[in-house]
Amino acid sequence: MKTHTLLMPLDMHLHLRDGAMLETVGPLTSYTFSGAVVMPNLVPPVTEKEELLAYRQRVLTACGQSRYDVEFDDLMEEEGLGGDFEPFMTLFYQNYDREFLDDIKEEIIGIKLYPAGITTNSEGGVKSFDLDAMRPTLQAMSDLEIPLLVHGETNGFVMDREAEFMNVYELLAKNFPKLKIIMEHITTKAAVEMLERYENLYATITIHHLLITLDDVAGGMLQPHLFCKPIAKRPEDREALLKVALDAHPKVMFGSDSAPHPQHAKESCGCAAGVFTAPIALQLLCELFDRHGKLENLQAFVSDNAQSIYAICPEFKEVTLVNTPFKVPEKYGNVVPMYAGKTIGWSIEGVE
Ligand code: DOR
Ligand code: ZN
């Protein structure tokens, strides 16, 4: 039997939603993670300070309670729930003025930019990358040291969307060399290559994009619970992602992009995009890094790199994992997780 301990795991890209869904999924992250970057794509999106602070409070409240009935409920009850969890809040990108940004900067970790209509609840996003129109906001963000988090996809052919977006990343990185730009949930070799080209570009990588390719989504029977944006790509793309993740390249960090949708919205005609991985992310990461003989690099990928990139100091948490099998529940509330009903190789042993 082998164990592995992680200190202060961080999920640098997470969808917690609101209301009953937040109450279901929040505690599943706060149990094992010290903090998470909380995405702002609610309906309506988070664009004002009051809303942001109220949402943060709802997240904190939800992360201290358990509302679902799964095996490790017992463990969580024994050990206390969500006491040490920090939600790092984000605003939904719009053109904001400097005064507004100056006033809100202490409350946020960054601003998330979505191209309009590219994914769930992104209709209010950016319609065209008109740098002149965006410059005052981006320059103010750069001056105030507010990172820009980007969903990097064009509305081109689905397999080429991320690669086509590299022009936009270049434009942003060149024009705002002091602005920290995070390429969120990268899925391609093209994006990995961009990391070396511009000092101010960083990236998050999900666990599902390290494990699957398009074949797993649509190569056989269609798998709605593996369908997400950006869609999983080719084997060579996954290889490129794996290399930088397993080496814990200092510019990459773990961001699950765990994106819960109710079962009926996934198993339907018109499947919503999003893979729900929050409760199994650390177990899968351990299994993957162990399989490649790289467990010693997981700490950097899942916490230390993010701490350096964002200059954050997370709440203390020590999570011990063990390589004994864990049967993934069929559901958490009304959400079906990735690998539902399957057995994975690593489990959570305890959290302190
Ligand atoms: O698959 C996705 N789901 N990709 C995103 O960018 C958004 C997310 C969601 O909010 O459901
Ligand atoms: Zn996301």
Label this structure with key terms:
352 residues, alpha/beta, TIM Barrel, 8-stranded parallel beta sheet, 3-stranded antiparallel beta sheet, 13 helices, 13 strands, 15% strand, binds (4S)-2,6-dioxohexahydropyrimidine-4-carboxylic acid, binds zinc ion
CATH class: Alpha Beta
Question: Count the strands?
Answer: 13
Please give the count of helices.
13
State the CATH architecture: Alpha-Beta Barrel
Verbal overview:
This protein is an alpha/beta fold and 352 residues long. The protein has one domain: Metal-dependent hydrolases (TIM Barrel). Helix content is 36%, strand content 15%. It contains 13 helices and 13 strands. It has helices spanning 19-30, 49-62, 73-79, 98-104, 131-143, 161-175, 189-197, 208-211, 214-219, 235-246, 263-266, 281-291, 298-310; strands at residues 3-7, 10-14, 35-38, 86-92, 110-113, 148-150, 181-183, 201-205, 252-254, 318-322, 326-327, 343-344, 347-351. The strands form 3 sheets. An 8-stranded parallel sheet has the order 2-3-4-5-6-7-8-9. The chain has a 3-stranded antiparallel sheet with strand order 1-10-13, covered by helices on one side. A two-stranded antiparallel sheet has the order 11-12. Helix 5 (131-143) links the parallel strand 5 (110-113) and strand 6 (148-150). The longest helix has 15 residues, at 161-175. Bound molecules: (4S)-2,6-dioxohexahydropyrimidine-4-carboxylic acid and zinc ion. Zinc ion (ZN) binds at residues 13, 15, 39, 257, 259.
